[in-house]
Fold these 3 entries.
Entry 1:
Amino acid sequence: MNLRQLLVLIGFVLANPLRAETPVASVASVDLLRYTGKWFEIASFPMFFQRNCIGDTTAEYALRTDGEVSVTNRCRTESGFDEAIGRAWPVEGSSNSRLKVSFFWPFRSDYWIIGIDPDYRWAVVGNPNRKYLWILSRATELPKDQLNAALQAATSQGYDLAQLRFTQQSSGKSQVIADIRAARAAGADVVIPFMHWGWERDPFPTERQRSLARLLIDAGADAVVGGHPHVTQGTETYRGRPIIYSLGNFVFDGFELPAAKIGWLLQMSVDRSGVVAWQTVDALIDAAGIPVPRARP
């Protein structure tokens, strides 16, 4: 826990004394499709089954063909990384805000989403007896205002934040750089990392995206391509190599935002020297959720 996190936590414990015991309530509804993907654990209550985790804890969710959700939990330990794979299913009548999770059949546990950011940038997960609590984020760090909102979601439901422990998360830079160098060492002629980054519906890349993209090219990437915001985020050329910050939406329908109904088809020509030509082509998602290339003028 760094000093900023400690001060925020102390402030919340002092300003929000424990409330009288009232039943925990999950949020009104959750869009499971938007909820899928990777989440970084920002903080949690200490749990026995996470006793060997020392950092870089993540949870990744994906929809299964049978309507359930696959769950992959991962964390860094003293000896490497541990991983647990399970399944989850929505509780009937909960509008997907309450799930049952099982890693060892027939054992199952409650997974209640008690707080969610409107743009799904953070989530707070607990259970009815307040023994479990996780604060999750789409990024390895949460800005102060978003962290405050997540903490407020927990304290408003009577969770004792004195138990909360913040999780050490690496920035991920070293791993991606190591992967680029390993690919080069293995004889790859062209290396293009694809990054899952940025905030949903934000039309501009963050400064972190910009600095990381340039760092990856400095490390030997021939181009950098990104996704996740569901809107296009622009491009730039750095040291003669392209950076495409977000390809936008392509087959993810259900958004009312006009910008979220546009995706880019990326065309690249490469040879052993790297990327020699590239362009983006707009694709519009029609009412049926099908991407259609926009006619060129």
Entry 2:
Amino acid sequence: MAAVYAADGSDDRETALAQLADGELDAVCAVDVFNEGVDVPSIDRVVMLRPTESSVVFLQQLGRGLRASDGKDAVRVQVLFVTVDPKRDTQALLAQYVPAFHPDFLGLYGDEAATAKASKEFHVYAHERPGKDGAPYTVDHSAHIYVIDREGKLRLLLPPGTAPAAIASDLRLLLNS
């Protein structure tokens, strides 16, 4: 086990991640140094010490669910990350950000009018909140995953916190039906 934290005496973050991925470590204990965007694709499990409704963690869980899927079912699933913040989430930013969760994920971007229309049609909550003390604004938003079949029919609505194994199982059932 490695202990990674923001102070003297911490194990090296990158070394700890490499050792975890290579199977040399069973776990990395981290405090205040791993943001929610860290992912180790070779690991199909994650232990959260606090509940989260973060859409970033949710995308990581979906990626893990696809990696845990037996056979080639994951190849038959196309994940689309749709931004609710077109002012900040540019096409270039999405092209860098989204594949970090899984190399086959795609980011979708629309202008403010298209984003508002899609948000309304899918009943997505998104509200821009001003930053405090000069900090940038934040966007509060819902974080469900919509599973839509090839005919465009909504088949599943997965809430935040759905376990990767449950995601993989549900997708497998849909793919084989």
Entry 3:
Amino acid sequence: MTRRTRLSARPKQAAEGERPAGRREPNPAADARDRARGVYMISVAAGLAGMHPQTLRIYESRGLITPQRSTGNTRLYSEDDVERLRRIQELTSQLGMNLAGVEQVFELERELARMGKRIKSLERQAERIRQELEGEIEAVRRSFRRELVEYKPLGRALVPLRPRSSRGPDAANRGYAS
């Protein structure tokens, strides 16, 4: 192989702002699916979580973990499952909780996540309504500008005439005709 052939066989440098060839763009949805896909058998998942495989079976019977199943009915644990097992391990060994307490913690975390989603939904709805109201207020302001006439005060105020009266001698002196 000559020097010229070796140089041309090198991968091309990516231009600024371009992704190098062979690298895919990060896809959070695909990454989440990969983390949720069951790939570890029970012995491997137990080893990764630092516990005995029988403990995983107990957690499954208590409903704390729900592994996927293969066509042969083998338990398959995902990255998310292993993280959950580590969380159970932390709660039971470091914080001294029993499994009933762990179930309550997980239920409260689910409820907290539901409430967070609800709050975000309500915030989006409130922002939409705020924008609609601002638009309506602006439309009302524009309509008032067309309808209102500017007030310009006169130099002298108009004094209303008093009704004619024959009362008293001054009636003729005040410029009233009799």
